[in-house]
Amino acid sequence: MKCPICKKETKVIDSRALEEGTIIRRRRMCLWCKFRFSTHEEMELLNFKIRKKDGTLQAYDRNKLLAGIERSCEKRPVGHEEILKLVSNIEKKLSDRKKPVVSSKTIGNLVINQLKGMDEVAYLRFASVYKSFDSADKFKKELASLKNSKIKKYKKNK
Which residues pair with 58 in a beta bridge? Predict the structure, then answer.
């Protein structure tokens, strides 16, 4: 790999696995100018299309999914590593399906189901965009549904 500063050759001085071995972080150093930087290598396993609500097809973009989840988790006690793990879990479920086209609804449901157990506020933020809440009543209904599911879960575990 070339140095981003002087464009000369670099060498790897440290490597470590992240995300249960699916990403490798490499620390590199330029042999010429001694600049140090990190790179992240990740396997590209997901090569499918997303069918949007309007019927159009779009290539899957991990960064778009990650950005949407990060927005809903903004200023919440959810760490970046947790978000990356959530995205990896969703991608694993999608790759297990082995289908060339996945609906945006399927992805949205996967995100919502995982966010619900992770952080309720982040869940509501994501749900409000994903489910296109256009009134306070829809928001209230979703909040009531969330409360009811917590009560049922509590009674079941009792």
Answer: 50
